[in-house]
Amino acid sequence: MLGRSSALPFAANSAAVADKWRLLAHPDPGPKALADFCRGSQALHYCADAHCTGPPGPVRNPFLLPDRAAVFSAEAGQLSLRVYGRPCVAGQFSGVLSSDRGREPGPTACTFWPALPALPVFSSNPSRIRGHRPHGLPSLRLYMSMNKEKLPFKTWLYFLGQSITMISMVMAVSMAALAGTSLAPQAWMATIPFGFQYLTLMVVAYPAARLMARLGRKKVFLMAAVPLMLAGVAGYIAMQERSFVLLIFAHMMLGAFISCGNFNRFAATDGVPPALKPRAISLVVAGGVIAAVAGPYLSSTLREVEGLQMFAASYAAFLPMGVLSFIINLLAPADAPATGSAPHARGFFGSLQLVVSNPMVLLAVLSAALGHAIMSLLMVQSSLQMSCLNIPFASASTALQWHVLAMFMPSFFTGRIIQAIGMRSIIYGGIGLLIASCIINVYGHSYGVLTFGLIILGLGWSFCYVGGAALLTRVTEHMHGNVEIQGINDQIIAVMATLTAFTASMLMAWPGWSGTNLISIAVCVGLGVLAVRAFRREGQEGTPA
Predict the structure, then answer these.
(1) What domains are defined for the chain?
(2) Is the alpha carbon torsion for 209, 407, 533, 64 positive or negative?
(3) pLDDT tens, 214-260?
(4) Nearest-10 crossing angle of helices 217-241, 153-183
């Protein structure tokens, strides 16, 4: 694996580091010495450019990087990185270490983040190229500039689009039951409109993904604005004319729009460098923060308007929101060829088979789906538990508001955390937080403890949901029909959400609040076992983790 080299790739001021590199340059350093070196995370920073000092001419000998089997070579200033024998684009994750490509006035550098502690041991005299040290070593300033690469403008458009999606969802949750109660022929039918909304969301997810694969995301997002406008018109007429059937239709249109809008997080990653994909997903999901504030405000402010029936104006607000959604997506750039052109359709069962048969894809899907299911189940039951403890409704609402903020606020920096510690750690962290929340709920029976449990639950959902989405985009990036796999992912999430919506009250009756949390712990442990096995298998097969 290591080629013979008569010269070290750079000179170091530290004797210890220099000794390690002499060991590395040896044609056969031995497995133990090699393992010790890799564990030391003394990363190789080598600038393959004529402006950098170092071995003259093209570098033809591969050098081992601290990631277990990452090798790069450079020919005439062209940098290529191979991880476990597979070519990688600069910016992809290699093992738990992230590589990135930074450009200064001339050089191209490949940097691994664990090397930051080692940088001070090298020469501190700056070279004539800004941001570099002698011998082609990128300075800390260059490293930071590479990791501060800005997200494209379209990411912010999808952030706004996701905000509208989440606002409509929050408004629907707050209005559906009350509006249904006022129009339903019988009391037990009050939640039927909301049930049809979830049913439509579940049914539309996969066909929407197929349409995106054939027509491109932009056209589907533009078309999805129409159901939101129809929901506004139908909901307004339903409340004014006291029509329960029209109310059901309005919520079905809402379900169709929300189902399409959920793809904003995946659309934000199209054409984005691999290192920025987690940040793009994270930012788009953070649109829920706006919804957590704007949704309840719009619902309560427009609930009673003089001259209109209750909630008529609230439903009518969906019409201008649909127009705004159309305008936002009209400003979005055209789809990348990989998204909008010639899809390689697998079909529903073909995509489902791939999800089940590929451990990493299955882990990505279940991380988001089970994380969402546990969050949804315990969020609904927490309201019932607070009611059983005679906690005032206003206090319970405040606790849920803190929970929603905990769900979406971390999304502003979850992407950067993934870049720093890797997807493996973020998913493990999400599972751990979900388990911690359940343990808190089992042993806590006061308002403060339940609120704290809800906050931890929201954080766990954020890590599992964003981490699962980021992992899914990475492992399916070069697969045929990857947009369809995203559709299967969202459909499974919708099925889980529907099941928890229908079973929350039944599970509250038996096995009760504590029993439901214990079941959730068991599910999290199972997900954790799957994660360990999937990541271990990926490492053994020689793919980046």
Answers:
(1) 15-146 (no CATH), 151-343 (1.20.1250.20), 358-545 (1.20.1250.20)
(2) positive
(3) 888 999 999 999 999 999 999 999 999 999 999 999 999 999 999 99
(4) 20
- Tokens read off for 281: 């997903």
- Per DSSP, 104 falls in state -
Tell me how far apart the alpha carbons of residues 381 and 396 are, in angstroms, rounded to a whole number: 12
d(CA 333, CA 6): 51
Q: Which of 340, 349, 363, 280 is nearest to 483 (CA)?
A: 340
Closest by CA position to 266, among listed 309, 217, 232, 302: 217
Give the 3-state secondary structure of residue 78.
strand
Reported as a single tens digit per residue, the pLDDT across 105-141 is 222 223 332 332 332 323 333 333 333 333 333 333 3
Helix axes 447-475, 277-285, angle to 10 degrees: 140
Cα three-residue angle 422-37-103, rounded to 5 degrees: 55
The Cα 381–Cα 210 span in angstroms is 35
Assess contact for 44 and 63: CB atoms under 8 A: yes
* CA-wise closest residue to 318 among 257, 261, 265, 263: 257
* SS3 track for 209-238: HHHHHHHCHHHHHHHHHHHHHHHHHHHHHH
Q: How many residues does the chain have?
A: 545
- The predicted model scores a pTM of 0.65
Tell me if 544 sits within 8 A of 93, measured CB to CB: yes
Report residue 354 CA to chain centroid gap. 20
Q: Which residue has the tokens 């959604």?
A: 325
pLDDT of residue 65: 32
* pLDDT reported for residue 345: 52
Closest CA to 366 of 416, 414, 430: 430
Distance CA 76, CA 59 (A): 8
d(CA 514, CA 507): 10
Check whether the bond before 126 is cis (ω within 30° of 0).
no
